[in-house]
Amino acid sequence: MKRLKSKHSFISALPFLAPSLAGLILFSLIPILASLAISVTGWSGMSRVSLFNGFFAFVQTHFIGLTNYLDIFSDGEVWRVLSHNAYFIILYLPLMLLLSLLVASILHHKSRAAGKYRVMYYIPVLTSWVAGALIWKWLLSPEYGLVNNILAFFGVDGPLWLQSEVWAMPSIVLASVWKDMGFYGMILLAGLTGINPEYYDAADIDGANRWRKYTRVTLPMLSPILFYVIMLSLINAFQLFPQIMIMTKNGDAGPNGATMVMVERIYKYAFRYGRMGYAAAYSWILFIVIFSFTALQNILQKRWVHYDS
Amino acid sequence: MKTRLMALLLVALLALTLAGCASDSPSPSPGNNNNNNNNNNQTPAAPPADEPITLRLEQFSGSGGNEDTLKEMLSKFNVIHPNITVELQTFGYDDYFTQLQTKVVGGNAADVFELNFENFVSYASEGVLLDIGGRIGDTSGFNQTALDAFNYQGRQYGVPNSFSNVVLIYNKDLFDRAGEAYPTSAWTWAEMLAAAKSIRALDSSIFGLYRPISFHEFYKGVRQNGGSLMTDDMRQFTVNLPQNAETLETMIGWVNDSNVMPNDAQMGGMGDWDLFVSGRLGMIVTGIWAFGHYTENCDFAWDIAVEPGNTGKATHFFSNAYVVNNETKHPEAAAALVAFLAGSREATSIRVAASWELPPVTYSDILDAYLAISPPANRSAVFESLNYLCTPPVVKQQSEMQDIIAKHLGNALSGSMSAQDALDACQQELEQKINLN
C-alpha cells in the first residue's frame, strides 16, 4: 500500500490494472452513470440510442426531471414491493444462517463421510437456478407434488404453495435456503477450521460444557465470518430475482403480486412494460436501500464482531 | 521510464477501445426519427434491379416447425428478385421480444422483422418503423381487418403475414359417451355449460371445458356478453361495468362451482393442449393453429364449431406482421420482401399447404384449398368466425395493462374478493397507471 502512495508508482501500476479497469469502466461505471441519466428521462427503452453519439441530446429530448422518482413514491407500489423483500429476508436470513451453521458443523466433524456430505450440500450451489427452481416447482405442486403427498401421508392437507398468496413467498424462501446453505456453509466451515484449538483446550480446563464452548468460543471467533455471510446474503436477498421469475406462473410474480420484489419490478418495467426511465429510477432506489443497510451493518458490527488480533 | 511508456500505451489502447464503440454508430439521434419517416415517404433513390442486396429478416412465427415453409417462400422470392439475398434468423417467441428491444436500442435491428398485434403499437409509436404504405403495391386482395390492424395514425407500418382466430374444438367421442348433441354455431354459454356438465359427470378425471381466466379470454368474454374493457375511442377504461362482472362471475363459476373446468391444482402444471390430446377434455376454446398438432396427436375424433357467446358472439383475432426498420438501407427491397411474404399468391399458397395459420388474403382459390383439408371436417367454422372478430384493447403500455388485468382476475378466481370488487380495483389501478394519451 505504501508504495502506491506516490504518483509515480501509481502510473507504474496502471498497465497491470488496465485490463480489469477497462472492464470495470466499460461494463460497470459507464452503465451506472448512464442509468442515472436515464432515470431522469421518460425513455421507453424501445428507440435507438447511442452512448457516444448524441447521448446528451438524447437525455435532453426525453428529460422529465425527477418525475420518475416522484411517481414511484406517490404510486405506493414500491412500499409493497419493499415489504415483500423485507418479508423474504426475515424468513430467509435466520433459516439460512441456522442451516448453514449446521452444515458447517456437520462438515467440521472429521468423519469419513465428510467429503461426501460436502459434495451433497454443494450440489445445489452449482445447479443453475432454472433447473433448481423447476425442481422446486414440481416438488411444491399442490396436487401431484412430492411435498404435499408426503404431508398427505401424515394426514396433513398441504397448502397450495406457489398458488397461494400466503404461501408463495415462503415457498421461494424454501428453495432459496436449499440453494444457498451449501455455499454459506462452506464459508462458515472455513471460519470454523480457522479457530485456534488452544481456545477449546483452555475452555476444557475451565470446565466449560459443549454449549458454553459453542456460545463463548465458537460464535465470537466466527463473528467476522458471520458478519461477512450476513452482509453478502443480505445484498443477495435484495437482488432476489431468478427463482421468482421461474417458480411463479409465467413469471407474473405470484397470486395478487405476492412475490413482487424490487429486481422483478425493475425487469418488468424495463423489458416488458417499455418504461426504461422508470426502471432506472427504481434501480437507483434499490441501490440506496442496499447501500444504507450495508452502511448500517458496518456501524452495528462494532457491537458484536470480534476480530482476533 | 520503460514502465511509464508502457502505461501510456495501454491507456491509449483503452481510449481507442472506447472510441471504437463510438465510431460504430453513425445514427441520427432518436429525436430525428419522426422526420425520417416523413422523408421516407418521398421518392427514394430506387436501386438498380441487378445490384446485389442483402436483407436481414428476423421472425418468430416460423419457429417450432414452420421455418422450412418460410424458406420455401424465400426461394420463390429469389426467383423474382435474384439480386436480393435474404439472411433469415428465427427466434422462439419467448426470446424474440427481448432480443428485438436490445437490437432496436443499439441500432442493429434487422431490415425486416416481425411484430405481433399486441406489440405493434409500442414500436409504431416510437418511430422505429418505416411507413411502407406506398411501397407494397395493390392491397385490395388483403383481408381489410387484418391490414387495418397494422395501420397506426394513418400510416401503414406493417403488413400482416398471417392471422388466426379461435374456435371451439370438441372431442366427439366424449360427446357420444355423454349422449350429448355436438355443438353448433347457435350454441350459447348455457348449452356449452350443460354439455360440459354431463361430460364432467363421466369420470372424476374428465373435464368438460377449458377456457382460462386470462386477459385474452376475458376481453373476448365481455364482448360475448355485451360489455367491453374500454370505450370505443380507447380513451377510457370500462373494466368494472356490471356486464363485465357478470361475465367474470360466470367464467369463475365454470372453475369453482360446476368445476367443469379444472383449476390450477387440478391441472398440476399440465398444458391445456395436452389435456385435450389426452382425451380427458370435452371442449377447448383455442386457436386454429392447434389443428396441425391435434391432427397428429389425437387418437379420437374431433371437430370444431363457432365459439359460443352469451348475448352476442365474439372471437379472437391474432395477427403477426412484417415491418421494415426505419433505418434500413434498402427500403424498396425490404418492402418488396414484406409484400411478397405476406400477400403474394406464391407465398400464401405455400402457407395454406403447410396449414400455417390463415393467409391474410381473400383470394378464393387459395381459401378453397384451405377448406379442403380435414380434420376438422367443419373447417368452414373458421371463416364463419371471421364475422365475429374482436380486437383487444391496444395501448402503448400493453404488457403492463395485461399484467394488471390478469392479476385482478386472479384475485377474483382465488375467491379472495367478489368479481365486482376485483374489477373495481382493477379499473382504479388501470386509471392510475396506464396513460391513454
Account of the 3D structure:
The complex is a heterodimer of chains A (309) and B (437). By secondary structure, chain A is mainly alpha-helical. Chain A has 2 domains: 15-65, no CATH class; 74-304, MetI-like (MetI-like fold, Orthogonal Bundle), CATH 1.10.3720.10. Chain A has helices spanning 7-38, 55-62, 67-75, 77-108, 114-126, 129-139, 146-153, 168-193, 197-205, 210-238, 242-247, 262-272, 276-304. With 437 residues, chain B is α/β, with parallel strands linked by helices. Chain B has 19 helices and 11 strands. In chain B, strand 1, helix 3 and strand 2 form a beta-alpha-beta unit. In chain B, helix 14 (331-343) packs across helix 15 (345-353) and helix 15 (345-353) runs parallel beside helix 16 (364-371). The longest helix of chain B is centred in the N-terminal third of the chain and has 22 residues, at 2-23. Chain B starts with a helix and ends with a helix. Residues 16-46 of chain B have low confidence and may be disordered. Classes of the chains: A mainly alpha (309), B alpha/beta (437). At the A-B interface, helix 1, helix 2 and helix 12 of A face helix 1, helix 4, helix 11 and helix 18 of B.
Q: Which two protein chains have the largest interface (Cβ within 8 Å of the partner's Cβ), and how many residues from each?
A: A-B, 44 and 50 residues
Span between N and C termini of chain B? 64 Å
Quickly give the structural class of chain B.
alpha/beta
- State the CATH class of the largest domain in chain A: Mainly Alpha
Percentage of residues in DSSP E strands of chain A: under 5%
Instruction: Figure out the total of helices of chain A.
Output: 13
Estimated helix fraction of chain B: 40-55%
Order of helices and strands of chain B: HHEHEHEHHEEEHHEHHHHEHEEHHHHEHH
**What oligomeric state do these chains adopt?**
heterodimer
Stretches of chain A where pLDDT falls below 50 for ≥5 residues?
none
Secondary structure category of chain A? mainly alpha
